[in-house]
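JOB MANIFEST
job_type = single_chain_structure
chain_count = 1
residues = 74
[input]
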Amino acid sequence: MKAKEFDKKFDAGEDMTGDLDFSKARRINQEPKRVNIDFPAWVVTKLDKESKRLGITRQALVKVWIAEKLKEAV
């Protein structure tokens, strides 16, 4: 499909998912990178209590909180 045809379909609000190849798609700067952080026991205890209250994992809680704080810093 030519770019003009693609743009025309997009601008018309048509569903483009059938025209896209997602097999090699990736989100830039979203690749996971493992880091290890040592926390005092009291921090881990409080993280566990809060994550249980919210019904999410400790790891998810830490990711969300760090991401929120970094967005605030921008």
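[summary]
The first helix runs from residue 3 to 11.
The CA atoms of residues 1 and 19 lie 8 Å apart.
exit_status = 0
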